[in-house]
Amino acid sequence: MGAGHGHRLHYHGHSPLHRAPAHLKLLALLGFMLVVVATPDDWFAAFGAYLLVLLGVVALSQVPPTYLLKRMVVEVPFVVFALVLPFVAYGEQVEVLGVSLSRPGLLAAFGILATATLGVLASLTLAATTEPQALLAGLQRLRVPSLMVQIMAFMVRYLDVVTSEMQRMRVARESRGFRARDPRQWPVIARSTGALFIRSYERGERVHLAMLSRGYTGTMPEQGGH
Amino acid sequence: MGVEQPPVLDVRGLAYAYPDGHQALYGVDLQVHRGERVALLGPNGAGKTTLVLHLNGIHTAGVGSVSVSGLEVGDKDALQEVRRRVGIVFQDPDDQLFMGSVRADVAFGPHNLGLRGAALEARVTAALEQVGMAAYADRPPHHLSFGQRRRVAVATVLAMEPEVLVLDEPSSNLDPASRRELADVLRSLDVTVLMVTHDLPYALELCPRSVVLSDGRVVADGATYDVLTDDALMRAHRLELPFGFDPRTVGPPPAAGPRAPRGGHGAGPGVDSVTS
């Protein structure tokens, strides 16, 4: 928690992928991911082919590969889980470098790693080539329920506000000599996280008041894009 | 005089207690007439924000009544019209600006009033021009400076063409240049203003009349200069002038032409001290 890295996913550019309509890109991502998830874990060649297709799309988008690689750290929890799996899973055992591993575990780990990597890379490519506002407009065009689009729109709008609030709380903590170095200090972090939740909740109430004050009755205007 | 117009804001005997039992207002009377600019002063916890939230029906009166240009607040059918007539600019612009672009945000209010297409676009442009922010229409609000966001927040309300603009702490957190720019904007508007503020020099500069709210009661109502120079009153209600600022050396602001006197009650200078 508390690291302010990479809050900008969008990479400014003018590639064909940047210009493509957001709803088509969303559908393409969804279709691609359905195919990837439906592929049996032991069709290794198929996963290789998916990766090639995806890398081709990335090349087309002219987003620098390092830009995407750096943001792929979100995948780390899946990688950890996948690495643990061969040790804890049951079934037929195989010897790898003198360590006994579960064969189904290994296969499942490969499946998780492959789908997660493809999914994260594909999503990052979408985020890098599409402005959040355009994405929301695309969702609206795809007839996603407007309540969900509204919730996402508010998330996009207030992500920066909440992040900077979190940052300020961290600075204020550390200015008073606090350093989260060992688990005994975690309760402090938990309490400030709680405070952040409450503040965000209260802000939500104030935003709602401000909306009511301008005649909000439950429907939002179309997300116009720009 | 022709037909007597009802006051833009008419608050009578308003009392209110929060659901937890804490009573915030004890019988408030306040009339604001067309074209006036009135400052609402008072220490923290005096009930100023509670009063403001009654003006457009977010809170409904426990006892007493609130009406806006003759329209009763609290009447469910009239709520939308009340909210058009009373435009509230909240203290934190991040609470008020929630759409993806300045244009979309300013359009939110008029859109709720049923405006569409070219008429909506015209409203948005006009409101942004009034606050000098037309060039920023396509920017996301969170990329603007704080002072610019405050001015856009004013525009979001102006776009609804309100009869009275209610500002909650308009000068708070502004740097001196932004504070002055906002004052220029407020002075240029042809609209009734009620301004909640702790910034007493700002009140003196912008508002010929001040009302002091303390412990849920109106304790003074008069010319801002007279209120600020009434030492006993100021001390009694935790109001203090900032260091180095003395209205007596600044002098009363030049009478603002037709805006100056209040229509109706209590003519002449001097503070009507309402001690009860």
Summary of the model, kept short:
Chain A is mainly alpha-helical and 226 residues long.
Explain how this protein is built.
The complex is a heterodimer of chains A (226) and B (276). Chain A has helices spanning 16-19, 22-38, 44-61, 65-71, 76-88, 103-129, 132-141, 146-175, 186-213; strands at residues 93-96, 99-102. Chain A is 68% helix and 4% strand. Chain A has nine helices and two strands; from the N terminus they run αααααββαααα. A two-stranded antiparallel ribbon of chain A has the order 1-2. Chain B is an alpha/beta fold. In chain B, a hairpin with a 2-residue loop joins strand 9 and strand 10. In chain B, helix 5 (117-130) packs across helix 6 and helix 6 runs parallel beside helix 7. Chains A and B meet through helix 7, helix 8 and helix 9 of A and helix 2, strand 6, helix 3 and helix 4 of B.
Largest sheet of chain B: 7 strands, mixed
Major interchain interface with per-chain residue totals: A-B, 27 and 33 residues
Poorly predicted ranges of chain A: 1-7
Rg measurement of chain A, Å: 22 Å
Q: How is the main sheet of chain A built?
A: 2 strands, antiparallel
Relative strand content of chain A: under 5%
Number of DSSP helices of chain B?
A: 11
Specify the structural class of chain A: mainly alpha
Residues in helix, % of chain A: 55-70%
Nearest-integer average pLDDT of chain A:
84
**Rg result of chain B:** 18 Å
- The spatial strand order of the largest sheet of chain A comes to 1-2
- Helix/strand-derived class of chain B? alpha/beta
> How far from one another are the termini of chain A?
33 Å
Oligomer: heterodimer
Q: Which descriptor suits the 3D outline of chain A?
A: globular
What ranges of chain B have pLDDT less than 50 throughout 5 or more consecutive residues?
A: 257-268
